[in-house]
Amino acid sequence: AQSVSQHNHHVILSEAASLELGCNYSYGGTVNLFWYVQYPGQHLQLLLKYFSGDPLVKGIKGFEAEFIKSKFSFNLRKPSVQWSDTAEYFCAVNARYGGSQGNLIFGKGTKLSVKP
Amino acid sequence: GAVVSQHPSWVICKSGTSVKIECRSLDFQATTMFWYRQFPKQSLMLMATSNEGSKATYEQGVEKDKFLINHASLTLSTLTVTSAHPEDSSFYICSAPIAGASTDTQYFGPGTRLTVL
Q1: Residues of B with CB below 8 A from A44's CB?
Q2: CB-CB neighbors (< 8 A) of A42 in chain B
Q3: Taking Cα atoms as reference points, which of B50, B58, B45, B107 lies closest to residue A1?
Q4: If you write DSSP's letter for every residue of A57-100 in order, what string do you get?
Q5: N or C: which end of chain B has fewer CB within 10 A?
Q6: DSSP assignment, residue B28?
Q7: Confidence check: pLDDT of A66 > 80
């Protein structure tokens, strides 16, 4: 079965620090990859997604992620975090089987706390 | 952007009662909606896929008689937790892709926190 693991449960950073959140998945076939963000009291929002093409994808609010197929990874990065980035971040994978669309499988989430 | 709402946002009920949670796509049609459950510090787990005009598809281990899903229109899906028990207390989230578009991009509702006493 497919699974998604996020390495860190809680990350605490100061403003302007650089961020990298790890995400690894287990599935050997074609996958679509997503990062979602959930701000306190709000619903999940899509940060960015990778379907194909350039493995370095840019999302909203200065976030980017790099798909490294050989490492089954899709790490999220931001060069300089802000207090407003405080949220929970979820990595998700959609495994595709022979062209059909599978379901989203989520990691457990990483809580990011940014100190002003 | 596409907006999905859920009602209620939180509910407290007594053990043995049933609770209905609504999921609405506000500015788009959704032939498919997904229902997730999230335990504290856990990931979202897909419970079932709701299909407009047909029966829902449940994930393995999810009791379809306990979690009744009705997708009555292109903008509304409901999840009814029947005879709720304390172990059903959780955060329930729905999502929907835009009808006709890829299900890869889903729009999420804000979630409903259910507490069963």
Answers
A1: 93, 95, 108
A2: 110
A3: B45
A4: EE-GGG-EEEEEGGGTEEEEEESS--GGG-EEEEEEEEEEETTE
A5: N
A6: S
A7: yes
Helices and strands per DSSP (H, E), number in chain B? 0, 11
Instruction: Give dist(CA A84, CA A115) in Å, integer.
Output: 10
- Between positions 7 and 66 of A, the ones with CB within 8 A of B are 9, 32, 36, 42-46, 49, 51
Per-residue pLDDT at A84: 96
pLDDT tens per residue across span B50-67? 988 889 999 889 999 999
Instruction: Report the gap between the CA of B85 and the closest CA in chain A (Å).
Output: 24
Asked whether the beta carbons of residue A42 and residue B34 sit closer than 8 angstroms, the reply is: no
Would the CB atoms of B46 and A45 count as touching at under 8 Å?
A: no
Per the CB < 8 A criterion, the answer to whether A9 and A112 are in contact is no
B36 vs A105: which has the higher pLDDT: B36
The stretch B61-74 carries a mean pLDDT of 93
pLDDT for A98 beyond 60: no
Q: Which of B42, B93, B108 sits opposite A108 (nearest CB)?
A: B42
Structure confidence at residue A96 (pLDDT): 62
Residue B77 confidence class, pLDDT cut points 50, 70, 90: very high
CB of A113 closer than 8 Å to CB of A86: yes
Q: What angle do CA B92, B2, B79 make, to 5 degrees?
A: 25
Nearest-CA neighbor of B30 among B106, B86, B87? B106
Closest by Cβ to A103, choosing from B43, B46, B110:
B46
